[in-house]
Amino acid sequence: METVLEIKNLKKSYGKKTALNIGDLEFEKGKIVGLLGPNGSGKTTFIKLVSGLLTADAGDIKVGGISIGVETKRIVSYLPDTNYLFDWMKTKDVIAFFKDFYKDFDEKLALSMLDKLGIDLKQSLKSMSKGTKEKVQLILVMSRRAKLYLLDEPIGGVDPAARDYILKTIISNYNEEAVVIIATHLIGDVENVLDDFIFIDDGKVVLSGSVDEIREEEGKSIDNLFREVFKC
Amino acid sequence: MSWDIKGDRPVYAQLVEIIGQMIIKNIFPPDSKLPSVRDLAASAEVNPNTMQKALGELEGEGLISSIRTTGKYVTNNVELIAAYKRKLAVIELGRFIRKMKNLDYNLEEIKDLVDKEVNNGNSFRN
Q1: Average pLDDT value for residue range A27-46
Q2: Helix (H) or strand (E) holding A180
């Protein structure tokens, strides 16, 4: 199997506080992996390190065999957990923006998904509901033909119908040469979509494995396992 | 039929059951083309690799066959589908009988009870 993302002894601190300290991890192509952990466990730090927005204190991250840098940004498609688009923009502006920035952006695909959702290209982002905005952002990110998709809380705070739409969009659009990492604490909502999972807490990997193998061995869902591991 | 995936068992095993039932119930009729793995996965909201694994198992049963480049088809062998239906029914019956035995019913009593309740037009006739 071909490794898309390779992580070695990754460390990141904010001042004296260690945010992330993980050993070696490999992500093989074609997999959808859940990065699962409570709030403040280091999920977003991990995603930001891999996307190249933060610099690690120690360790190595390689995407497609290349260390994180300008080269890897071309093949990594990142959905932040906050609004990353300017509110004054209209949908068509955002499309133009993505087209300018990313060579691998499939404009036709994005337009057809937006059309199916009934989104007017002249509509400005500020006039959209939270759920609609999340959908538009996801469409843009999934319309890139990337090697690695990093989705930080893609279903945070949306209603169940929007959640279904978002999961279906991820399943229908990632390519089999790619890896998708979904960082979330909403485990029950995403676990059926995952091949593998990684539980992180306090910046460390607590448990990882294949979703179906754990279900077979433990006779319980990843959500229930999570509740046991992180019992307070 | 809906994709009602429960938490306590592997997803692929549940997909095998649900798609098997869809074939038995003629939702996917004999000789019909199945939707793509990706579309099936999206509609069930499951991982495409898991869907692939489930379809692989049904291929092993002979219920589905892959025709290169054109996709997957339900078998045209209706006897095979009937046999599969029967096999699942026998498994289900086994589970039922085990549960009834836990309630201290023997086989004769189970048969009597089923007859009686069916004749009374009881709740499970829907």
Answers
A1: 94
A2: strand A179-184
* pTM of the complete model: 0.87
* A135-139, B20-24, B118-122, range with the lowest pLDDT: B118-122
Chain B CB within 8 Å of residue A116 CB: no
A32 in contact with B at a CB cutoff of 8 Å?
yes
Stretch(es) of chain B classified as CATH 1.10.10.10: 11-76
CA atoms of A26 and A2, how far apart (whole Å): 10
Structure tokens at A54: 């933060």
Q: Do B46 and A224 touch (CB under 8 A)?
A: no
CA atoms of A106 and A108, how far apart (whole Å):
6
ipTM: 0.80
CA distance A143 to A170: 10
- pLDDT (tens digit per residue) in A167-179: 999 999 988 899 9
- The answer regarding whether domain B11-76 maps to CATH 1.10.10.10 reads yes
Hey, are the CB atoms on B49 and A195 less than 8 Å from each other? yes
